[in-house]
Amino acid sequence: MKQMKHRAALFDLDGVIFDTEPRYTEIWAGICGRYRPDIPNLEHIIKGTPLDEILKNYFTGGPDEHRAITEWLDREEQRIPYIYINGAREYVEHLRTLGVKTAIVTSSNRKKMANVYAQHPEFRQIFDQILTSEDFRRGKPEPDCYLEAAKRFGLEPQECVVFEDSFNGLRSGRSAGGHVVALSTTNSPEAVAPFADVVVPDFDAQRPEHALLQELF
Description:
- The protein is an alpha/beta fold.
- It is built from ten helices and six strands.
- It has helices at residues 21-35, 42-45, 51-58, 63-79, 88-97, 110-119, 144-152, 167-176, 189-192, 210-214, and strands spanning 8-11, 101-105, 129-131, 160-164, 179-183, 198-200.
- The relative contact order is 0.18.
């Protein structure tokens, strides 16, 4: 019998489970163009960072500006179609048949997740844990979120595989000590390769790279 190499799979949400990053880039490009046109490419710099930290670190207009940005984002998140990355749901369900623990570890907040659950009633049943920005003190690229996820399963970070797409998320997983898989859904394979142990385009079982995913567990 093959010995299991890792015991938990920890997934970021946008760009890993759902193909939403292009839409988020558009949304944040609009917000940043209006409120912070002086910071080029800010919509890319902030990827993977919790909203509270984005507002605190980059938007200096005070409570009224923060409220307007939050309302803008809330409206758009209600309209986003949450479409699974190719093979993502099937891969997660396969891992669970192997006894692997699964978790979402996202910088999104619970209000956004309510939109996900409305479109996908099955979502909470296919993951053992769902961690949002309210569950950790410091957001990505700090390791807190992935350390907390490992702790909830009673595991060491080294027993976990982290699936990420953004540079902040990849740094978070690496800093936590997890085995890091980068999805090249948001950035090129060449760009994310230095931050990951494995790079794959998606979870399609027909791709040659899928064999690398099967070997992790």
